[in-house]
Amino acid sequence: MAHVRKTDEKRGHFDARDRLIIALYAQLKAERETRETLEWAIRHGALSSDVLEAIASDPVPVVTSDEIASVEKIVALDERLRRNTGREE
Asked: Which is it for the CA torsion 52, 24, 13, 81, positive or negative?
């Protein structure tokens, strides 16, 4: 399959794009588990109104433009490395 990415079988390493996808998946999974746990706690009255207020007012970290630029730079470097070494995806 031409569209399936593979690890470097000799070294068993993932490239930068694969590592990013895995990290984003892990973050999404953790956020879903946190949300499910919070929903359960709210439904069962396990949290006081003070705790709920603190959770609601806590700012959610956002991805900055610097972080996006860093990821784009890593992906571009990885693509250049692939072209220079003749590796195919």
From this structure: negative
